[in-house]
Amino acid sequence: MLLFFYGVLLDSVAEGRVRTMLRGLGPGQPATTSGRLYAVAESGRFYPALIPGEGMARGMVHEAGTADLAALDRFEDVWPDGTGEYRRQPIQISAGGGSLIADAHLYNRAVSANLVLIPHGDFARWLRETGARAFAQG
Fold first, then answer.
1. pTM for the full model?
2. Nearest Cα to 75, choosing from 138, 1, 13, 4?
3. Which of 11, 12, 7, 6 has its CA nearest to residue 22?
4. Domain count, the chain
5. Is pLDDT of 138 > 60?
6. 10: helix, coil or strand?
7. Using CA atoms, how far apart are residues 118 and 59, in angstroms rounded to an integer?
8. Could you tell me the residue range of the domain that residue 100 belongs to?
């Protein structure tokens, strides 16, 4: 199983306990998918929200390996009944010159005025450009 990460689960962004959750993943490679990427503010820090559709989001694709998918889903607020802030589902991505299917955590809320559009679709770059801090748990 492949996993597409585009935000606080990126190795270059992850902090604290989030970094621990990434143990067991296979090596990653750059990837993109269609959609719009937004920044969501929480307690002075930010995390991204991917909305499938027009535009492009950049991230990394990894083999799931022995990563704890249940822990990743809890972190992303995925609920079995589908009412969480995110849902994990397969999406089409581009990586290594080809098209692949990978699971991604997609935003499960309506786009609202408090979301900040990331025009270039790269959360790590947006953090560097704005000086904003990524959301971290523990």
1. 0.95
2. 138
3. 11
4. 1
5. no
6. coil
7. 13
8. 2-130
- Give me 136's structure tokens: 């971290």
Strands 45-63 and 28-42: antiparallel
The 3 state secondary structure assigned to 24-86 is CCCCEEEEEEEEEEEEEEECCEEEEEEEEEEEEEEEEEEECCCCCHHHHHHHCCECCCCCCCE
* Domain contains 138: no
Give the Cα separation of 7 and 60 in Å (integer).
9
pLDDT for 26 equals 87
Read off the pLDDT of residues 58-106 as tens digits, 9 standing for 90 and up: 999 999 999 999 999 999 999 999 999 999 999 999 999 999 999 999 9
- In tens, the pLDDT along 17-66 reads 888 889 899 889 999 999 999 999 998 999 999 999 999 999 999 999 99
CATH number at residue 7: 3.10.490.10
